[in-house]
Specification:
Order of helices and strands: HEEEEHHHHHHH
Radius of gyration: 29 Å
Number of helices: 8
Shape: elongated
Largest sheet: 2 strands, antiparallel
Distance between the termini: 38 Å
Length: about 290
């Protein structure tokens, strides 16, 4: 669901951006185009009291700007109705919180530890997890999602972590059977030992963040280069008196700057670097410990 709202948010943002750019560019070039004799008659000929006739003419670009403005207003209103970006970020944050809770539960660390109980079958971790899960649900549904269809019955394809028999995962029984048969895949609920936590949680996260860094760094430099080229082009066009094209270039520059701010590649690079450093520090602390201490 978070991914679906993410796609909606990005699609609506890009559409708004393109419509705004088109309106600015067409508004800038319309006077020059219309002055060149490209005006077309769009109104009926009306008779004046003196018997003379007058034809109301309008440039086709002006009409196009009007249509695009109406479309842009509709898209903005639809975006406000969907509120996709806020829902996307909220669902993504809630999913991250839930995932952390599940891994703490599977590793039997606080607050899901056995509490020194000699009985390994103690139900204390389950009771603690029930309480935390109830609080998480109340916080999630008590937000902007309370007025949506979030709590409806979803299609089986939504469940991808063995929670439902009808989802094809087989549920807890089949997941345990696969684990007993030596299947190394993660069933997403069984308790894990430290080396399994590293293999299933830390190593994939490390690869994910390391894989994202090159693309985000390239994206950041592309945006900076485009802004630099736009500044140089605007200066040259201004020098030779091409004011119309200066307006077009500056409109494109503003669009690139807005898109760069939305992508926020610099902040994501910092986040990825900090996450990689934290994981590497944890692995560096863990590796030298002898098996008994582990």
């Amino acid at each position: 669901l978070a991914q679906r709202y993410k796609l909606w948010a990005k699609a609506l943002f890009c559409l708004n951006l393109l419509l705004g750019l088109a309106i600015l560019v067409l508004s800038a070039i319309a006077p020059d185009v219309c002055d060149d004799g490209d005006a077309v008659a769009v109104a009926e000929i009306s008779e004046l009291s003196s018997g003379e006739t007058r034809t109301a003419t309008s440039c086709g670009l002006v009409e196009l700007v009007f249509v695009l403005s109406v479309v842009a207003s509709f898209v903005i209103s639809f975006d406000g109705y969907m509120d996709a970006q806020a829902k996307w970020r909220q669902l993504r944050a809630a999913a991250g919180t839930l995932q952390s809770m599940i891994w703490c539960y599977r590793g039997r660390v606080a607050p899901f530890d056995l509490g020194g109980a000699a009985n390994l079958e103690s139900e204390q971790p389950e009771r603690a997890f029930n309480g935390v899960l109830t609080t998480w649900r109340q916080e999630l549904v008590g937000s902007q999602l309370s007025a949506t269809t979030f709590k409806r019955k979803h299609q089986p394809r939504v469940y991808r972590h063995f929670q439902r028999e009808e989802a094809g995962g087989g549920g807890r029984k089949n997941a345990r059977s696969a684990s007993e048969q030596g299947d190394a895949s993660d069933d997403h609920f069984s308790p894990v030992r430290p080396h399994e936590y590293i293999e299933l949680r830390l190593t994939p996260a490390l690869r994910f963040y390391q894989g994202r860094i090159p693309s985000k760094n390239w994206q950041r430099y592309v945006f900076k280069l485009m802004l630099l080229l736009a500044t140089v082009a605007a200066a040259l066009l201004s020098r030779y008196g091409e004011t119309t094209y200066v307006t077009v270039v500056m409109a494109c520059s503003g669009t690139v700057a807005t898109l760069s701010e939305f992508q926020d590649a610099t902040r994501k690079l910092e986040h990825y670097s900090r996450a990689i450093g934290a994981i590497e520090n944890l692995l560096t602390w863990w590796d030298p410990i002898n098996p008994i201490e582990q």
